[in-house]
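Cross-posting from the modeling subforum.

Setting up a comparison between two proteins and wanted a second pair of eyes on the formatting. Protein 1 (sequence, then structure tokens):
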Amino acid sequence: VPGLYIWEGFLSVEEESAILQGIEAQPWSGQGTPPNPEIRRRTQQYGHLFLFRTRKIAKQLGPLPSFVDVALERMIATQLFPQPPDLLIINEYETGQGIMPHIDAPTFGPVVTSLSLLSACVMSFALKQDVDERGSKTHVDVLLRPRSLLIMTGPARYAYTHGISKNDVDLYEGSTIPRSRRVSLTFRTVV
């Protein structure tokens, strides 16, 4: 997929543990709890409040939390973003939870990164306009390992949908990938 990159081992085990500690000390929303009660997974938002139902920014929330400084500093030092990310959405996926294929809202800038913690999963990418002769979209599966950083730019950001199945187990290149609780941290800029 053009514009798609995976940075394996973006975090150490110790850095992952410290970030998870910071996350667990904060309240979650979703699953009936505002500000996005309709979401079936638990979420935390920092920097700006994004409403999933309208796919719009509702208000500014303040700076990103200090528990992600190590990840932010690494992304900024390697110039992944043209300007520092100012929105962080943390999603918790329990076994059997996924996310429907989508393209991130145009409200967000040209780079989207997603940091995977705890469990691996397979993310599927499909070119939005590409349909094979049977009428179904062709797709590319990408393995997101714990502590890896997914980087979407260019076509990967704007022309491909991405999603995660609701499977308890993923298959990737002939291997079985068991799924358990996964926490993702998605960094974006608001335009």
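Protein 2 (same layout):
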Amino acid sequence: MSGPQLKPGEVNLGTTIMAVRFADGVVVGADSRTTMGSYIANRVTDKLTQVHERIFCCRSGSAADTQAIADIVHYYLQVFSVQEGKLPTVHTAANLFQKLVYDNKDNLMAGIIIGGWDPVDGPSVYSIPLGGSLHKRPFAIGGSGSSYIYGYCDAHFKDNMTRDEAIEFTKNSVSLAMSRDGSSGGTIRLAIITKDKVERIFVPGDKLPAFWEG
């Protein structure tokens, strides 16, 4: 097989990640299971990485690859904000991620979703799937669990949701994916990014939204 593959023993973020734009900001969310083949290496992983004050990325693929990419982008955004004296835009962060993933697409296994708020564009969401293409979306889902919830997300997403509606939509979507995908599980971590603040929410396994499971 050609293309990037996990090395023996390399940790994989077989995962469900998601970002949703709402009227005043962005909600990013993810499950917390990290796998090595059929072995669960970590059941409380934080897959939401803050790369600047109001910009987060959600990571799927190789844990090592995505952590390294996020660290590089974080460094460049810090340099940008110091040199320019202003906040970087989400679009700037997304372009940095896209260039790193695309230029190294044969060596990296990384699918990334970027969400955040900036003074120029307000709330925005970008998706970078394997291969390094860049897509601006009102919402984005990724990881192995995402294939189970495309229909649910298409049916229940609406523009200009309220904060609470976006949180509920994200929680329900990730929970549904976790119930079907063996590589997703554990807990749900959320970050709500607005002009004024970043709020983190933790949903433990016994408080997840419940659905019919047969």
